[in-house]
Amino acid sequence: MDKQGRKSWEALGELYAWFGDFHLRAGGYSQPYMRKIPTYEEMKEYNPTKTFRKVTDHTFLIRFPSCMGDDPTLEWVHQSIDAYLTSGCENLIIDIRGNGGGTDDIFNPYEKLLYDRKGYVDGVEIRNTLAHIAEIADIELDWLQQVVETMKKSQDAFVAMTPRQVDIAYDTISPLPRRAALMIDGQVASAGEQMVLNLRSCSQRTTIYGQDNTKGCLDYSNCRGVNLPQSGITLYIPMTRSCRLPDKGIDQTGIAPDVRIPLPLPETLTDNVDTWTLWVAKELEKEPDSL
Fold first, then answer.
1. Dihedral of CA 141/142/146/147: which sign?
2. What is the rounded distance in angstroms from the CA atom of residue 13 to the CA atom of residue 168?
3. What is the DSSP string of 65-124?
4. What is the C-alpha separation between 127 and 105, in angstroms, rounded?
5. Which residues pair with 220 in a beta bridge?
6. Pairing of strands 51-54, 25-26
7. Which residues, 6 or more positions from 189, have their beta carbon under 8 angstroms from its beta carbon?
8. Could you tell me the end-to-end alpha-carbon distance of the chain, in angstroms, rounded to an integer?
9. pLDDT confidence tier of residue 6, bands split at 50, 70 and 90
10. Which tens digits make up the pLDDT trace of 154-172?
11. What is the pLDDT confidence band of residue 203, given thresholds at 50, 70 and 90?
12. Confidence (pLDDT) at 287
């Protein structure tokens, strides 16, 4: 214990939380000291679960609660898109409430479906250290091996991992959906937030709906874990920082929705069609001139 009576793991958690970065953390010990975010504990059940189905004859729902790639899988993502395209619905809701992140690749099929204009997002730089080189050196991706070689040759503290501006462009534009909604909440983080930024940039037909801003966990990313030798506590250290820093960071505020949903929290969010989804469907089905 220290002079204030805190146990060592509490002091460590408080130290890491001081940086205000949800990716940089000491196991779960930093969480009590982090900026408070909505947890939705007042709901009867908050457990967003993958599903795709019709909401009405005009609007289809895809609930996509994780970018980890295991549940749902990339195969499921393609199945959900196929189901939508054969549903006869002109509108689409993609609900990512609770999506705490994972990998960007898994949401790319949704991005391609909703794409209707060329967009761009800010790239990332990687901190140039021997430990970070060792972390990525065995990943068999040609572009990443080029980054490793650049890091080995450079004396700079940070090295470009991607271009500073990453263009979003596809060869075709899908005629459907006619209108789309992306539903968010305060638990959307990391790759989930990147999905929000990408779609906001490249899909004019997509409106972001929610009540809370996203979590704010994206300015620093691509973590590696380091186990402390005696305590076994795992430190999670982001290896990259966004090129939008220092002027356009999102971690202090999260990403705001385009439209705030003016309803109480639903009682239950699992694989059901909840009250918020029904409200968003009605918004999508309004005639454009009445919006």
1. negative
2. 38
3. --BSSSSS-HHHHHHHHHHHHTTT-SEEEEE-TT---B-GGGGHHHHHHH--S-EEEE-E
4. 22
5. 241
6. unpaired
7. 22, 99, 100, 101, 214, 215, 216, 217, 218
8. 59
9. confident
10. 999 999 999 999 999 999 9
11. very high
12. 67
Per residue in 82-122, pLDDT (tens digit) is: 999 999 999 999 999 999 999 999 999 999 999 999 999 99
Provide the pLDDT confidence category of residue 200 given band limits of 50, 70 and 90.
very high
- The encoded tokens of residue 161 equal 């991992």
The count of residues in the chain is: 291
* DSSP labels, 147-210: HHHHHHH--SSEEESS-SEEEE--S---S--SEEEEE--TT--THHHHHHHHHHHH-TTEEEEE
Which amino acid would we find at residue 35? R
Token pair belonging to 286: 């309004």
Is 252 exposed, middle or buried (CB count within 10 Å of its CB: 0-12, 13-18, 19+)? exposed
Q: How many CB atoms lie within 10 A of CB 30?
A: 24
Q: Decide if 266 contacts 211 (C-beta within 8 A).
A: no
The label of the residue with tokens 């967009």 reads: 119
CA atoms within a 13 Å half-sphere pointing along the CA-CB vector of 51: 16
Reported as a single tens digit per residue, the pLDDT across 23-69 is 999 988 998 999 999 999 999 999 999 999 999 999 999 999 999 99
**Token pair of 238 as six digits:** 């982001």
Query: How far is residue 148's CA from residue 142's CA, in Å, rounded to a whole number?
Result: 10
CA distance 155 to 193: 32
The pTM of the full predicted model, rounded to 2 decimals, is 0.94
Q: ∠ CA(150), CA(155), CA(158), 5° rounding?
A: 70
pLDDT at residue 290, as a whole number: 44
CA-to-CA distance for 194 and 212, rounded, in angstroms? 16
Rg (CA), the chain: 20
